[in-house]
Amino acid sequence: MKIERLNQDKIRIFLTFDDLLERGIQKEDMWREIPKVHELFSEMMDQAYTELGFDANGPLAVEVFALPAQGMVVIVTRGKVGARPEERAMEEEENDEDVYELEVTMEQSDVVLYAFRDFEDVIAACKQLNTAGLSEDGRLYVYNNKYMLAFEPAGLELARYQALIALLAEYGEAASVTTAVLDEYGKVIIPSKAVTEICVHF
């Protein structure tokens, strides 16, 4: 579980599938109001307070993004409950004094996103993908001093999808951000056909 502060009232938590498995939670359970999910949320808020001093008292808006092959990203924002009535609210009591008033939004992301420490790793990964015939249309970003390759493998057959993930994992690591964050805070270097472009120029 990794927690980082986005601003004074917003944090991002990255849960790997192992984090969920250790707690006996399936990905689909995050959509349901069950005690295990409540316990996980309490644990996340405790850790956010310990690591970042993020006090989760009061109304909270919680967005959960499922990332294929990587895990889940949970965005917690203070003071936003009631902004969107169509979202379902759930309440959770950690103890008698603290009440979390939550508004939960679930989103499924089909984007495969991997981070690389330096450009040489990006080049090596792209050359391997190209050799394997996996030069799917991709985008290259820079964000937080790392290079990010993003792919939208919609309609890609399972074997090719798994091969894409396996090759990316050899050179990079699964990123815990969404493309919405990259579009807003990152910089697009190659907007499309990133693997092909890199192989042609490097």
From TrEMBL:
Listed InterPro entries: MecA_C_sf, Neg-reg_MecA
Family membership: Belongs to the MecA family.
Protein name: Adapter protein MecA 1/2
Domain of life: Bacteria
A Pfam short name: MecA
Residues making up the signal peptide according to the UniProt record: none
The organism of origin for this protein: Paenibacillus methanolicus
